[in-house]
Structures are given as structure tokens and as C-alpha cells.
């Protein structure tokens, strides 16, 4: 039986999340799942940018499969991000297909014509051997972008940081934890929009998000409510203009830190600011949060500049992520 669940119902959500986490991490030695509090905070928050629908496949009292639909309410209103999972001992029985059929019906009702999903493929596996990839490809999804998931052990050797630290001339680093300072937030929102426009998209069809102060503050509030701490470093040009930024995300209950967006705006490239930004934030992380054991980041396969920075810092590839789409119209 497949039923829609109310994420505000703690028992129902916990049962759903246990199955989601079991299925999502099975067979992945270092694979991550979104922490419970972070995911529950996202799906229960009152938001004007995103809506969620969660379904559970039950056998008796046990949840054995999950479906999550993530629906953008601003840009990309024809898209739906679709996540289907089935616990390992219930795979191969058509349950995933039934969950996907529920997603298709709901998308049709909502007028959503493009389904998007992502599949992590562990090292040593391929599109042909890994269950999630085989399922997506068999159901008409095509790969639009490939990313490597990389891991960096902490702490980082101070001698390595000293050796890599570049001379960035008159650019200076400014940093904060949590909320962006009021005097920078408008410029920071503009950089977030540039990041959306400039990040590799491959053959994916989504429209880049447009960020403003309200959207930045809403994300900060969401993260605070979920117990997530953000470390942000920006590079400021001699003119005062923000030239780039990088973000580390420390989720409650997790000892692996997420390296999120890193951007250097086009007019300011060529000064090694990307490396300088990452080094500055890593030094803050090691100094202020010595309990964290590693940093995880993602790198589009074709982004050679960021790949070289990550390799120099000591990141190693753990998995390949496939970003897939299927147009039903």
C-alpha cells in the first residue's frame, strides 16, 4: 500500500525517514543521506519557494519504499524533483515502478512535465550495475550532468595550507558564521544569482534561480531552525565589490561538513581567489570546529579549474553522481 504522509506527524515521518536512509545509503561505504532534522525542517517549513510531497510504501507496519516530490514554486515550475527509494530486501518486485507511477500521476495533476532525479554511483559500480542508475535509465531518464562526490579528511595539514596560500594582491577576505552582515547581504544575494547562472548545467533544462535579500534570509532562517551552521567567506575587491564566495555547511548530528557553492565572478578571475576562499574557510573550520572529521564536496566532471583546486587540497573521489531528467510532455 502506498500512502501520502504528513511530515508534521513525527511518527509517520520517522518511519518514512528510516526507510529512506536505509535505502539511500545501502551499498555506499561513504555515501551520505540528508540528516533527519535537516530534511524534516525542509519539508515542514512554511516556504514560498518550494513545496514537498512525501509518500510511503508500507508492508504492515514497516515502510519499505519512499517517494519524495520537491516542487519549485518560483523558477522551474514545470519541473519536479523525484526521489524514489526501496529498501534492499524489497527490490526487484516492481515497488519502485509503482512509486514512480504515483509521482507521474501527481505531476500530471500539478501540470509538471519534467521529472528530475539524481543517483549516486559508488566507486567500482557503473550505470549498468548500480540499481538506482539501472532503474532510472530503464524508466526513460537520461543523464544531463555528471558530478564527482569528493571527500577530504580533517584536519588539513597547516603546512599544506601555507604552501598553497596564493597572493591575491589587494583583495581581502571577509567571513561570517550564520547570517550575512546587513552591509553585504544585497551584494551577496547578487553573487548567489551569478552562481546559479554560471555553475555547470550540462544538458539539464532548469532555469537558474534569482536570489534577493529575502531569499537569502529565508534560507538562513531555515538552516538555523534545522541546527545547521554555515561558514561563509567572501573575497572583496579594492573597490568594495564582492568578487566571490564559498560556503561550508555544518549539519547537526553529522561529523562530515558539506562544501557548498564556491564562485569567483567573471571580472575577478585570474587572481586565484577560488583557492584563497577555500583555504580561508578551511582554516576557520579546523580552528573553530575540531570535532569534524571530513569535508564532502561535489565537482562537475567538466569543471577542470575546481577539480584542480580540490585535488591540491587533498580531496579524493568517492562516488559519481548522475543528474537525470525525463520530459513527459
Task: Detail the topology: elements first, then pairings.
Elements: E1 2-5, H1 10-25, H2 36-44, E2 50-59, E3 62-72, E4 79-86, H3 95-110, E5 114-122, H4 131-138, E6 142-153, H5 158-164, E7 172-177, H6 185-198, H7 213-225, E8 229-236, E9 242-250, E10 256-264, H8 273-288, E11 294-300, H9 304-313, E12 316-327
Parallel strand pairs: 4-5, 10-11
Antiparallel strand pairs: 1-2, 2-3, 3-4, 5-12, 6-11, 6-12, 7-8, 8-9, 9-10
Strand order of the largest sheet: 1-2-3-4-5-12-6-11-10-9-8-7
Helix-residue proportion: 25-40%
Residues in β-strands, percent: 25-35%
- Return residue spans where pLDDT drops below 50 for at least 5 consecutive residues: none
User: How many beta strands in the DSSP annotation?
Assistant: 12
CATH first level of the largest domain: which class?
Alpha Beta
Please provide a written account of the structure.
The structure is a single chain. The chain is an alpha+beta fold. It has two domains: 2-112, Gcn5-related N-acetyltransferase (GNAT) (Aminopeptidase); 152-321, 3-Layer(aba) Sandwich (Aminopeptidase). The protein has helices at 10-25, 36-44, 95-110, 131-138, 158-164, 185-198, 213-225, 273-288, 304-313, and strands at residues 2-5, 50-59, 62-72, 79-86, 114-122, 142-153, 172-177, 229-236, 242-250, 256-264, 294-300, 316-327. The mean pLDDT is 95.
Structure described in brief:
The chain is of the alpha+beta class. The protein folds into 2 domains: 2-112, Gcn5-related N-acetyltransferase (GNAT) (Aminopeptidase, 3-Layer(aba) Sandwich), CATH 3.40.630; 152-321, Aminopeptidase, CATH 3.40.630. The chain is 33% helix and 32% strand.
